[in-house]
Each structure stands twice: as C-alpha cells, then as structure tokens.
Amino acid sequence: MIRVIGLMSGTSVDGIDAALVEIYGQDLDIQIELIAAKTYPYPDELREKILSVCANEAISMQELAQLDDAIAFAFASSALNIQASHEPATLIGSHGQTVYHRPPTLNTLAYSLQLGRGALIAQLTNLTTISNFRAADIAAGGQGAPLVPRIDAALLSHPEESRCIQNIGGIGNVTYLPARRDNWLEKIRGWDTGPGNSLLDLAVHQLSNGAKTYDENGDWAASGNICQTLVKQWLQHQYFHTPPPKSTGRELFGVDYLQQCFQDAEKHQLTPADFLATLTELTAASIVENYRLFLPQMPQRVLLCGGGTRNLYLKRRLQILLDKVPVTTTDEVGLNADFKEAIAFAVLAYWRQMGNPGNLPSATGASQEVQLGEIHQPSAE
After folding, report:
1. What's the alpha-carbon Rg for the chain, to the nearest Å?
2. Which residues are known binding-site members for ATP?
C-alpha cells in the first residue's frame, strides 16, 4: 500500500483538485481508497494570467518562468494542505496546468505543455513528485491524451456491461470499456470528444459582464430555447468527424471559436439564455455524435465525471439524446466523480513508481505501452 497525492487542474482552470488516496495492488489489479479530496482555487490574478496565456497572449520568457513557478507553488501548497490532518503521503502525481496542446499531424509529433514543474514541487513538499506525464506517450507517437483510459479500465470496467466513462471538464473525453472478457483490453477506445465546459464558462463570463464564471446547475441555459439549426451547423466542424485517436483543447475550442459562435447566432436573434441552451446542446450532441460515429456499438451505460456532472441541464440533455442508455455518474459505482481526474494522476504516479505502463496505445495512438512521468526526488537534508 502506498499513500499518494494526485494533483490536477484542467482546461477550465477552476483551481487545483487534490486527492489523497491509498493504492493497493499491481498494474490493472489495483484498489484505491480516497482519504481526502478538495479543490483549491487559484488566486484570481494567477487564474487570469493562465487563461490569457491559454488564449494565446504573448508573454516573455521571464513571465513564462514566473508563471511556471507560481503554478508550482500553488500545486505544492495544495499537496501540503490536503494531507495536513492525515497521515502523510510518500508520493505526488502532478499533472500540472496545460497551457498549450497540439495534436500530431502527418509530419509532426504532438506537443503538450504543462506548467508547474515537478522538481520544484518535490523541493517544496519534500516528497517524491512525478510530473510531465504526457511526454513519453507523445515521444512514442501518441496524442499524449487522453491518459485516463488505463485507469478507467482498472477501476471502472465491468464483467458483463459495456460502459462509456465520459469526463466533462473544460474539454470532454471518453473511455469506451467493453465488457471485461475476450481480449477486452485491446478493444478499449478513448479520445477527446470536443468542448465540455470551456465554451460555456467563457460565454457565461461574457454574457454576465464578468459577474459569473459558470452556469450553476445549468439553470441559465435551462431557461432558454435550443436553436437546433445552429447546433446542426456547429456539428459540421471537422473535429467531430475526425476518427480517433484524437485530442483537442482551448487552442481549437476556445475564445476564437466562441466568438465565431456568437457571430453565427446573430441572425437567429437569440437571448442570452437561448445562446447558452444552444451551446450546452453542442456539448451534449457532440458527445453523442462521437459515440454514434466511432464506437463499435452504443454502450449499455454512460458514467459521467468531472465538473460537468454538476450541470444538471447538460446531464438531462445527454440522457434525452442517449434515449434508453442510462446516464449516471461514477459516484454511483464507487469512484468520486468530482475528483476522478486527480485520483487518476495519483494512480499514474503509483504505476510509474512500480514500473508499470500508464498509457493505452488504443486510446492515444502511441506505438507501444510506455511508463509515463518524470520522477523528481527532493534533495537530501
């Protein structure tokens, strides 16, 4: 048994999710116990700086170094706080903060940059820290994302039931888990489905003149009417029709894309609530469209996780579009839906420490299974 802290901040840049977990077992045959979990919001100034960099604002190398340090300090503080009233951990798995992600092309490897350097976190916490998880998969020809499918296989697969594990963070990503039999591991698929909360959060911030950062429970969107003509138009985007493996981020579904959505909506004379309802429908419909186009068959159950699980209107729209396929959350099968991604990076760190691979080539497109993450040891006293 090892006690591990998982640290994660996603494309929504809400804050740092920290999970303190105990992990038992080997490779895919593991069990976890969640000891503590909490989200530590970024200071407003730091969050705004991260968002501006993600929106392609030019900064100097000096500013980049300062931002890298600031994020590392915030991550280290979260790690120290989450274990303050518990028996301490011996290992940290830190995803860091993604500020740039470029999928591979025919002639170019993928590139993904996460700030919040692990070496500094190790020094500040005096704990072995594993970070930069995406680099090894990218070097093996993969997308570097999504990295959760192997964890989903270990923790959420079922002997009789096929499942989709749908994370809705800033970006949505899915893991398709066939029933656990007949070479099931080779049949697992995973990819980024497209926008999750990122466009909605940006739109709410703009429509509320900065007074709100998200649509609580989806109530604002629920009060509007969906413009299906716009949804159909937006679903023609090439990304939704690109076969997996594939990954994306704010570089594609960010500020520029949202402004195009606002322009497209002008001729339809939508109210703010109508626009949010339509944008929410894009997230739901793009998820379902990805399933219909690229899954070998529709799943028997969909389990949601991530911040989008708290958007009750989005969840309701997903259930309507998926018809008879039940939509629940990973909470209902024993894995915390809010902190699943942080738990995942604790598991990835554990696997790296144990010498196990962390990626699934069938999901990322890598040429082989590889160990993920760079190990940083604190300096000896």
Report:
1. 20
2. 10-17
Q: Could you tell me if 32 and 93 are in contact, meaning their C-beta atoms sit under 8 angstroms apart?
A: no
CA distance readout (Å), 92 to 71, 312, 318: 15, 33, 35
In a domain, residue 189? The reply is: yes
Residues 360 and 174: their CA atoms lie apart, in Å, by 13
Q: Rounded distance, CA 373 to CA 130, Å?
A: 6
Q: Which helix (H) or strand (E) holds 98?
A: strand 91-102
The per-residue pLDDT for 280 is 98
Q: What is the structure's pLDDT at 30?
A: 97
Q: Does residue 302 fall inside a structural domain?
A: yes
Q: Which residues of the chain have pLDDT under 70?
A: 380-381
pLDDT of residue 88: 95
User: Is residue 165 located within the same domain as residue 294?
Assistant: yes
- Which residue bears the tokens 């090892």? 2
Q: Does 136 map to a domain?
A: yes
Its domain, for residue 179, covers 149-333
User: How many domains in the chain?
Assistant: 2
Residues ≥6 apart with Cβ < 8 Å to 76: 120, 121, 124, 125
Q: How many CA atoms lie within 13 A of 362 on its CB side?
A: 18
pLDDT number for residue 381: 59
- Domain at 205, CATH number: 3.30.420.40
Task: Please tell me whether the overall predicted TM-score, pTM, comes out greater than 0.85 for this model.
Answer: yes
12 part of a folded domain: yes
Binding residues: 10-17
Measured between alpha carbons, how far is 111 from 134 in angstroms, rounded to an integer? 9
Instruction: Give every strand in the sheet of 171-177, ordered side by side.
Output: 189-195, 171-177, 163-168, 301-305, 327-329
Same domain as 156, residue 141: no
Query: In which element (H, E) is residue 176 found?
Result: strand 171-177
HSE value, Cβ hemisphere, 13 Å, CA-based, for 327: 22
Residues 259 and 130 in one domain: no
